[in-house]
Write a structure and sequence with these properties.
There is one protein chain. 72% of the residues lie in helices and 0% in strands. It is mostly helical. It has two domains: 74 residues, Orthogonal Bundle (434 Repressor (Amino-terminal Domain)), CATH 1.10.260; 56 residues. The protein is elongated.
Length: 130
């Protein structure tokens, strides 16, 4: 199937990866509204986000830009192995990000618990002084 617009290509690639617009937006680092604007051709991604999209969606950037799978414009030393290695690194970074988010949540919860304890201790001390 031929996808005429960049938005159609982004949407088709996202769906073929089984991702929701929300999931793709989070992985690329944009708001869902931005992703919806890209997919509906109201705006286009900047170069850095285009690179991220191509990586997350495992598609050729030229295909995203032009709808062409022509790899002849790529340097001859760019091989599938190299892109697979990059995808592996992206996957590792995403996994690390998810672990960091979980750790931040745990630390934040612990800080809140400690702060509550300090406040309770202070309230008890104040009550004893009365």
């Amino acid at each position: 199937m031929t996808y005429i617009t960049m938005g159609e290509r982004i949407e088709a690639a996202r769906k073929s990866k089984g991702l929701s617009a929300s999931q793709l937006a989070r992985r690329v680092g944009v708001k869902v509204s931005t992703m919806n604007n890209w997919e509906s051709d109201r705006s286009e991604p900047r170069a850095n986000k285009l690179v991220a999209l191509a990586g997350v969606l495992s598609v050729n950037m030229i295909w995203l830009l032009e709808g062409s799978d022509d790899n002849s414009s790529l340097p001859p030393n760019v091989e599938v192995v190299e892109t697979a290695d990059l995808q592996s690194k992206i996957n590792r970074l995403q996994s690390m990000h998810e672990r960091m988010v979980q750790l931040l949540f745990e630390i934040s919860s612990e800080v809140n618990r400690v702060q509550r304890g300090i406040k309770e201790d202070q309230a008890e001390q104040d009550a004893e002084q009365l």
